[in-house]
Amino acid sequence: MGAQGHCDPRFARVRKVFENHFAKGEELGAAFAVHLDGEPVVDLWDGVADRHTGRPWERDTPALTYSCTKAVTAAVALMLAERGEVDLSAPVAEVWPEFAAGGKERVTVEHLLTHQSGLPVIEEDVPAEEFGDQPAIAARLAAQRPMWEPGTAHGYHALTYGFLVGEVVRRVTGKSVGEFVAAEIAGPRGLDLWLGAPPDVIARAARLSAGERRTPGGATGSDGPEAVRAAAELPGRGPGDPMWEMARAALDKGSVMNRAMGNPSPGKVKGGANNPAIMRAGWPAMGLVTTARGLAGFYRDLLAGEIVRPKTLQDALRPRVGGPDRVMFLDSAFGLGFMRPATMFFTPGKGAATAFGHPGLGGFVGLGDHRYGLAVAYTMNRMANAVAGSMRGYRLLEAVYDSLP
C-alpha cells in the first residue's frame, strides 16, 4: 500500500527511498519528517511499532532517539546563556562548587558542551536503582579527575554530556532539563518531545529492536586479529587507522569507548531502552522520546529564531573542535552542543558546510540546515549497526538534498 502521510511532489524521491527501505526488509517501523522554510513538505510513516504484537506505527508514534537528545539539551543551555543565567565561558564550579574537585576548577561550561572536559566515563558503576536520580549520577562525575587536560582535546561524552550539562541547568534553574523542555520548548510549541516520558507516551512508544548483532565496525564474534580486520572492513589497514582503532575498541569491553557508552547501562533493566524506567528517566544525553514530526519541529523553530535568537544560534554553530575524537577515533566536530558534519555526522555534500544537529545510536537523525531552510528528522525501531547515523538515514538525507532546486 505504500507509506502513509504526506509528501510534496517536489520530494517524490524521498517517498521512493523511504518505501524502498521497507520493500527491501530494512525497516520494521519508521517515520520521516521534513520542513522547508518552515513549511511541512514530508511527513511519512509506515510499518510496525512493535514487532512482537504487530502494533502499527501510527502518525503519533514516538521513539527513544538516543543522542538526538543532545541537541535539545544544548538548546536549553543556549536559552539560559541568552538570558544571562549561565556564562558559557565561566568555570562550571561557579554554579556547581563540588565540581571543582580533582583539578577541574577551570573547566568551563563550554568545555562540557564541546566534549572537552575529559570526563567521558563514569568510573564507578551506576546501579539501576540510581537511574532516575540524575543529581546522584552527576555527583559521581564531580568527584572524578579528568582523563585529559580539559580544553586540550575532545572526545565524545556519550552519556556524561547530559549529566554534566543537566546538573548545570538544575543548579541554575532548579529544574531538570526535561522539566525545562516541557515548560519552555515542547509545551508552548505543541511539540511531541519528552525528556522523561509520561505513562501514556511510553505505552504507545515504538519498541526498539536490534538489527544484526555486530560491533560498530562489523565484527560478529571472535576477538582475535581476524575479527578486528573484519570489523574495520578495510583490508590491509591496521593500527593508526581510525576505523581499525574504533573496531578494536568495540571488541574491548574495557575500552574508553565502551565504558563511555555503557555506564549507566540500560541493559541492567529488563527490556533495555524499552523499559519504562529508561524512558521516564529523561537522561539529557540519550533519553529524548519524540516523533519525527516533533523533532523536525524543534529544528524548524530553532531555525526560525523562536527558541534562541538567530545570532545565538549562528555563534553556537561555529565549530569549536574538530578532528580525531579521543573516544570514538573517527573525526567528529562540535559547535556548542551541536554536531557539525564530519565522519561521525556524515551528511550529503550540499550540507557539508551548513548542516548541524545530532544523530542517535542505531541510526536516528535530527538535522537543521540554515542555508536551505531545512529541518529534518528520522525515527525508526530497527536499530542499525551504527554508533551514529546509518545508511538508511543517509539515503533519506541525500534524497532530501537532491530534491532541492
TrEMBL record:
Gene3D superfamilies: DD-peptidase/beta-lactamase superfamily
Pfam family, one: Beta-lactamase
Domain Beta-lactamase-related: 15-399
Record keywords: Hydrolase
Superkingdom of the organism of origin: Bacteria
GO terms for MF: hydrolase activity
Matching InterPro entries: Beta-lactam-related, Beta-lactam/transpept-like, Beta-lactamase/esterase
PANTHER family reported for this sequence: BETA-LACTAMASE-RELATED, BETA-LACTAMASE-RELATED DOMAIN-CONTAINING PROTEIN
Protein name: Serine hydrolase domain-containing protein
Organism: Sphaerisporangium rhizosphaerae
